[in-house]
Amino acid sequence: MLIRADDLELRRGSFTLRANASFTEGVHLVSGPVGSGKSTLALILAGLEKPERGGLHREGVASSLLSLQFPEYHVTCGTVAAEVRSWGLDPAEILSRARLSGRDDDDPLRLSRGELKRLNLACAFAKNPDLLLLDEPFSSLDCAAKVRACRAIEERRSGITVIFSHERSVLPRVRTISEMAGGRLVSRGEVPGAIPLWQSAPPYLRYALTLGVRPANITLTDVREALCGIRG
Ligand SMILES: Nc1ncnc2c1ncn2[C@@H]1O[C@H](COP(=O)(O)OP(=O)(O)OP(=O)(O)O)[C@@H](O)[C@H]1O
User: Fold this and answer.
1) ipTM of the complex in this document
2) What are the residue boundaries of the ABC transporter domain, all occurrences included (predicted)?
3) For the segment 203-214, what is each residue's pLDDT rounded down to a tens digit?
4) Within 13 Å of residue 190, how many CA atoms lie on the same side as its CB?
5) CB of residue 91 inside a 6 A radius of ligand 1
6) Closest residue by CA, ligand 1 atom 28
7) CA distance linking residue 232 with residue 76, whole number of Å
8) 122-175 pLDDT per residue, tens
9) Is 31 touching ligand 1 by the criterion CB < 6 Å?
10) Most buried in the list 26, 129, 222, 225, measured by CB within 10 Å?
11) Contact status, residue 140 vs residue 119, Cβ threshold 8 Å
12) pTM for the full model?
């Protein structure tokens, strides 16, 4: 399974996105600050924006899904239960997973942003597409919900998962790291080799690196384990 972006170029006002990238099975992080082009790239990879130059190549990807940064953009129905059914999913199961049991008849747009994000992510993970593109999956979530979202990402047993995020506190284990810099997507390679090259790495990772610690992956748990290693 593969999705490859060949010499993509797209202009948006004064901003120009350029990307060469290849994502195979596993979890990939596309990191970068606000306004650096992550959502634009996610839209292109989902086939929802057409680049002015370059092309997309897919191999073995039968289904794909983009979870948008703003969950209200997904809403098409007047109740939470109808919304879940519009995804072809069972409301009771999804509402339980999203910790929204009993909210079947609520208007989705009256849920809090975080509640609606939980609902959207529960639907996206339940669909289990070959290619899952997650644009800022942790935004609006509290810490406990971020941790559960990380677990759901790590529990995907197959397929390609690409996370586009500026999150710098709660992250899942990933296979590769890329980052947006000056409108260009730069690959830092596979983890753990990519970690010291990651310019916008979270402070806890940077701290570990200054101590000479080399975590196996990017989560706080990995850093803690690496620190325990050097301290015996
Ligand atoms: N439709 C558009 N028209 C004009 N400019 C746009 C459009 N879409 C995006 N941009 C600009 O392109 C740049 C990249 O935006 P994008 O939303 O891709 O960044 P991002 O990294 O996803 O940001 P965030 O972290 O806030 O989600 C920004 O400067 C934005 O203003």
Assistant:
1) 0.94
2) 3-207
3) 999 999 999 999
4) 3
5) no
6) 35
7) 55
8) 999 999 999 999 999 999 999 999 999 999 999 998 999 999 999 999 999 999
9) no
10) 222
11) no
12) 0.95
What is the rounded CA–CA span in Å between residue 57 and residue 166? 26
The verdict on the CB of residue 182 being under 6 Å from ligand 1 is no
Report, as an integer, the average pLDDT of 63-90.
97
| Pairing mode of beta strands 160-165, 131-135 | parallel
The domains of the chain are located at: 2-63+129-192
What is the residue whose two structure tokens read 């350029």? 18
- Nearest-Å Rg of the Cα atoms of the chain is 18
The number of the ligand 1 atom at minimal distance from the alpha carbon of 136 is 27
Q: Which residue is it, tokens 């953009």?
A: 73
Q: Is the Cβ atom of 69 under 6 angstroms away from ligand 1?
A: yes
Whether 88 has a pLDDT exceeding 90, the answer reads yes
Q: Does residue 15 have its Cβ closer than 6 Å to ligand 1?
A: yes
C-alpha span between 24 and 35 (Å, rounded): 26
Q: How far is the CA of 200 from the centre of ligand 1 (A)?
A: 18
Give the DSSP H or E segment for 192: none
Q: Please state the atom number of ligand 1 nearest to the C-alpha of residue 37.
A: 18
Q: Is the CB of 137 under 6 A from ligand 1?
A: no
Residue 44 main-chain phi, psi, to 5 deg:
-65, -45
Ligand 1 contacts CB of residue 161 (under 6 A): no
